[in-house]
Structure formats: structure tokens, C-alpha cells
Amino acid sequence: MALRMDFPLLLIFHFVITTKTLKSLSSFGKESQLTVVGVHGNYSWPVRDKAVHMEGDLVLGALHMVHERSEDKICGPIMPQGGIQALETMLYTLDVINARDGLLPGVKLGVLAKDDCDRDIYGLEQAVDFIRGSIANIGSEYSCHDGSDPVILGVIGAPSSVTSIQVANLLKLFKIPQVSFFSTSTVLSSRDRYPFFLRTIPSDVHQAQAMVELVRMFGWTYVSVVYEESSYGMQGFNELEKLLKANEICIAATEKMIKDSGVAGQATYDKTVERLLAKSNARGVIVFGSDQEVGELMQAVKRNNASHWFSWIGSDGWGGRSLAVDGNELEVEGSVTVQPLAFEVNGFKDYFLNLTPENNKRNPWFVEFWEQQFRCKYPGSSWTPYNDMFNATCSGRERLSPGKFEMEAQLQFVSDATMSFAHALNNIHSDLCGGASGLCDAMTPIDGALLKDYLIKVNFTGLSGQEFAFLPNGDAPARYRILNYRQVDRGRFEWKTVGFFLGQHLYLDSQSTKRIDRKEQITDLKFRWNEPDHPESVCSRPCQKAEAHHMIDGSACCWTCSPCHIYQYQPTKYACVDCPMGTIPSPDRRSCMEIPIAYLRYTDAIALVAMAFASLGILATAVVMTVFIIYNDTPVVKASGRELSFVLLFGIFMCYAMTFILVSKPHEITCGAQKFGIGLSFSIIYSAILTKTNRISRIFRAGKRTSKRPRFISPRSQLFICGGFVAVQNAVGIIWLLLRPPRAVFYHADRDDHQLVCNDAVGAWYMVGFTYPIVLVIICTFYAFLTRNIPEAFNESKYIGFTMYTTCIIWLAFVSIYFSTEHNTQIRIATMSFSISLSATVGLVCMFATKLYIIIFHPERNVRQSLLATKPVMPSPKLNNCYSSIHSSCHSNGRQDTAQSTQSEYGDLEMMHRLRPSASFSSTLSRSTCATQTMTNGTSISTQTLELIAKGTDDVHL
What we know:
By secondary structure, this protein is an alpha/beta fold.
């Protein structure tokens, strides 16, 4: 049984709908010659009760926008493509369904089709007729052949999203399923708000994705958006806004095209275009609207002389439709629009082209279409505001031809919507009636909720040859065709397919698109006749590599470019950040990379030279030490002071060895060895030399004043003195190590430098280790200066003096080089190595070369007689004879031990006597002779005692 409602409730509901409609349309009656007559809104034109009534056992309702909207009338002129063609597609599909034996056997499917004039309120009032049969037999203009009211099982339509939303809110109250073929608003995807709404066209969510992909493909980052003020336009804009933001594409200007509140005038569209032109960099414009509004917009573009300025990306509401482009060809040229992917309905084109007013009586609006198409008035036709202007009379011989008539590209969705009801009802019939022909009692009436459940599960192959199935939310799969409006010949424009958008992917290359649709010829995208490439639409051009974006007025797409410093990288395109010391920007400037670590390596040329020099020095030192060990008991070795000579040779060896430590890779151990060993090696050398010079100086100074032997001139004393000097340096080194522990650090003399050095190699810290040796050098030089006038027989002091003078020159040069190479530690270390080795070489050559020469090449001079034969400093022959007699006497008496004297004591005493004046020296020698005679009287003078005297002589001759 049909759903029944109380009579008062029906009257209230019908009154509310009619009152809203009259209020919405009252403004049109003032400006037109049409007058509203009667409470129920019976108009002289349009005829409200005009409809397609196709009888059947099961009846569907349908809403089509047969007429366009009008600025001053309720309905505008006939809409050829989206109106008449869509209506005829539905009727053709019903004919095919009813002609098929396997589909709804024994059941005829009928329809009640109404015109909504592309107005939501007017369409809502028309939809009231669909619920009359479900409520009561009151006020119905339509009835079945048996006189009963038709019960509408479901509704096909409406085309407009705005109208579909209004109608869906009404139909859900009565659980009447609705399947739209052109409504794409995202709002309609909500199952909670519109549980009985389905559609065979994809949602605008996917359409917005396709449009944004086109923007990205063009490389645009700054676009304007124009949308109509309707649910379709506003929901589409909301999706666009989210997707554009997610893809870092900025909206330069946002403009609305008034629709729901009334139709805007030319001035409104002109101001819209002026605001778009004000954003001169945003040449790309996305237009989300219907064909009628877009047509008005393009007229405003023409009036503002901007025909070739904008590049349009359009929605399916106007893409591929003639209403938007007729008369606006140059303004629309180059547009790229998104259109739901639809294929030709097989057989419909031939069916439609064969229609005439004579053979198509079931369509009450076909005569209007015929009059508009051929610009003539059909005999016997009713008056309309649009056929009154035609003076010619239709002859009846006019025929539709393919070349002069453009077919709507999305008719597949109308056919699929009709087929979906047929297959759902067929499945219900199969389940409830067991396949028996005709309707069974179980299908009278059919529950709307049950029909909706069967609808959402249908899966069929439509008249286009394409499979169709609803998504779980009632939407259609996301499949779009990309159209390009272009000039194919001079003055001839066409919509051409240039690609597809399937799922989440845009296909524009010819190979991919041919695989998708092998029937359709795919062409390349083109902007204008003489300008194939689409214009640039960016607020600011991309910055070059190593340039940062500085945003303007908070916009994410408008910026100025400023170059980054050579040592800055870009973690983001908006910032330049300094690379840490020791790193430089990578080639792509996205990160920093470490500079190769620089330090003195064994393989470096300067290190090889330094090590070669040091190796020769070590070899020479080893030779000298070996010779001295072999000839340890010879007069030359004895005369040089064997103990201090070996100490001196050890210090020289350490200096040479320091080169290998200095050129090794910095490490805590090597750094500690450097800072402790450099000062120690020099301290050993100059402590030994200082001890020698001090001893010589004291002996000769004492020899001038007294015959008393100076204190602390014995070998043991000399070693203790030398060790004391070295101990001071050890203390300095230990304190330095404790206060400033050695570490290997990175040193950056400049931004391109990345040196691994010891922490004391930077600055003047190494001079701490050199301070004490420098003091020793100064003192040694001072003593060398004091002993410069020692008679030529005593050459040791002269060699020491030459050593110290040369060392001072080397050190003066080294200090200046040391401070001038502060930023290049490798050169500094190499210079230090050479300076240390050179100082050691000076000491080795000056102190040992002459001795080595005598020992090896003149061994005849390496005897005591030779050493004593040197010219003494005697005041008179008499005194000399006295000395000779003492010397002879000592030799003649053989070797005997004495507990009172040592070799060095006699030598030192003799040295003192040689420097005394004549008288003094004579008396001293006399006393010495007496002492010698006294010892001789007690016991004979031993050979060892004589050697001690000879040693004293040797001490001053070499």
C-alpha cells in the first residue's frame, strides 16, 4: 500500500512549498508580461503541468533542466544539450529497457519527467508531484490507465547540484531513492545527510583533484578562482582551496558568480573581470561554475578587452558545452576543462537525429527546441517569450544533421542512471517474484529503502559499453576526460580531448591516453592559434640555486630572491643558514658536507724532506757517538769532556727524533710528546753547553786571580749541574701538561680550512716550551761572549761561541716564521721541524766535527804529546823550562796512585796557571813544584796523576 498522510498535513506541506516558490519568483512577474494566476501557481507560461508522462507498471520520476534560467523570467530558453538531449537519452534508454526480454520480464517501466528550469525552488515544487502518489490521491494531475495515482518508485535527476540538494531533502522523508546524472557537489556524498541520494557522475572532490593536477602540470603557483554562489560552486571551491594549499599554490583573487540569489547583471561581471585583471601575474584562472554564468563571465572579458589574457581551467559545469562558448570563442580559446569521462550512448545519435515534432509527441518541449534550433515558428505551437521573435514558419522539412548540431558529451550518465533503476528493479523482481513474468504481489508496493539497497549493489554494462557500479557511498568512480577548446582552423573552434584523469593520475601523453580510449583521437594541448604554450601564472619567478625566498605581505607565492652567502646552505627555500666551521655547502646547497681534513702527513713533500734531513742527522749523531765510544779513552775524547759530550749527543738525537713526532697525525699522545719533547731536547743540549761554558769561564777567571782550584768542576759535578738545568725544563713541561692537557683539535684559519692540529699548535702556546731553552741559549751566548778572548790554544770556547751565535740566528728566524705562519699549521710544524734539526746540526758540527776529524783522519795528533806540544802561554823561557822539568820529572817516575789529587784537578790547576801573569804564575808554579817535590819525596808520582795533568791540558786545547 502507498504511504498515507493526513489530509491537513498534506495541505500544510504543499502550502509551504508553494508559498516559498511564489515568494522566490515574485520578482520576475514585475518585470515580465507573465502573471501569476491562482493559489497553486498556474502560469500562462511556462505551463507548470507540462511533463513527459510515459505509462508503465513501475513509474520513475525525473527532473531535467529543459529550460535555462532567465534574468527576468521564471524559465529561460530551451537548453539543447543538457536539457532536451538528456531528456531524450532517458526516454531512449527506457525504450531499450522495455524492449529487452531479459530485463524486467513482463514489466514495463514508465516515467513522469518534469522541468526544473535550472532553479532549485522551482524544481522543488515540481518534485512535489513525485510524492503525491505516496501520500494521498489529492490534487494529482496525472493518473494511471486504470485511474489510480502513479506511485513514483525513484527519481532520476536533478541535473543541478543545488536542485538535487533541495529535492534530496524532500525525497528522503518519503524514502524515495534518487539517482542524479549531473550533480557533482561534494555535499551530496554524505550518507548521513542524504541517505537516499546516488549519482552516476563523479563527485567534485575528484574533479578538484584533476583541476589542481592541471595547474601543477602548467607549473602555475599563483592563480585566481571564480566560482558560482551555489552548493556546486562553493563546495567545489572549498575542495580547490584545500588542494591548492596542500600543493603550495596560492590564490591571487577569489570571485563569486551570483546564482542562488538571483542572476547578476553585466556590471557585476565587469567588476569581477576588473579585479581579475588587477592581479596581472595570475593569468591562470580556475572557473568552477555552470555554463550560463560562465557565458556571462566571458562576455565581460570581451567587454574589458581581455580576450587573449586569461588561461582558463574549467569544471564540468561548462566544459564541453556550447552555451558557455557561443559568441565567446576567442575568450574561451585555450581553455582546459575537466569533464567526467563518458562515452557515446550506442544508437542514441541516430535516434535523436531522426526525431521530428511529428514523431516525438511524447516530449511536450520538443517543438520549442525545434523552433529554437531552426529559428522558425512551428505551426500550431503555443506562444513563448522566445518564439515570438521568429518571423519564419517551419516548413516541416527541417531535419537535424550531425554537422550543424553538437551532441552533449555526458549523456552516458543519464543513460546509466536510468539503467541503474532498471537493473535494481530487475534484481528485486528476480528475488521476490522468482523470475515470473509481470509484477508479483511482493513487489506491490516496493519499499524505497529496499530499492536503495539494491541500487547501490548494481553492476552492469550500460548502453555506452562501459561497466558501471556505484562506490560504497553512492558516488560514481573518478573518471574524467580533459578537454581543450581550440581553433582547429581559422575561425573554427572545437572541444578536443587531450587527456584523462583516472583515480589520482593525470594522463596527457599520447601513448597513455590511447591505451585508455582507443576509439578517440587524442590531440596535444594547445593554448591559442599562434601561441601554443599556455602563459605563465606565477607571482614571483623561482629563485636560483643558493637564493632564499623572502616572502612579500605574508603570501606563500610572492617573494623576492636574495643570494645566500657562499658558506650558507638552504635547509628550506626560505632560509640561508651558515654551515658549521669545517664544512661547506653541498653542491645542491641542501646540506653541509665536511671539508677534507688537512694535517701534515708522512707522504707530504715537505714532511719527506724534513724526515730525510732528520734521518741524516740521526745517522750522523750515531756515527759520532759510535766513534766516541770506540775512542773513549783517547786524549781527544777525554779532552772534550766525555760525560757532557754524551749528554750533548743525546740531546741532539732527541732534536732529530722530534721531527718524526711533529709530522705524525695529531693525537693526544703525539701532541703530549711534542709539547714535552721539544723543550726537553733543547734543554738537554743547551744545559750541557751551558755547563761546559760555565766551567771554562770559571776556570779561566779563577786562573787569573788565584791558584786555588774552582769548586764543582769535576765530571760528576758537571753532570749534576746539567741535570739540574734539565730538571727545570721537566718541571715546566709537567706543569704545562697538567694545566693544558694535550688534545687533537680542529683548527679553521678561514672558512675553507679544516686542519687537524694539536691544541698548542694554534697561537703561541709552543713558545711556552721554548721559553726556558731560549733562556739557556741567551746565557750560553753570554758565556761564549765572555770567553771570546781566551788564547787560541783553548779552542773549545770558540766552538761553543760559534754554536751559540749560529743558534741565535736560527732561532730569531724561526720565531719570526713561527708567528707569521699562524694560519697554516702545516707550514708552522714543518718550519719547526727544520729549525730544530738545523739547531741540532749546528751543535753537532761545531762541537764534534773537529774532534771527529782528528780522531779519524789524524790519529797521530790524538796522543798526549801532541796535545801537550801545543804552544803554551808562558811569560818567559825560564818559567817554561821549569814547567818542562816538572813534566819530565813526572814521566820519569812511573805510575803511582795518589789519594790527594785527580786528573781533572791537575788539569784545571794547570789551566789556571796558564792564564796567570808572569810573576804570579812563576810563584805559583814554584809552589806547585815544591808540592810535587814534596810528593816525590814521600812517594813517587804515579802515571795516573800525570794523566790527570795531561787531561787538564787537553781540556783547553780542543
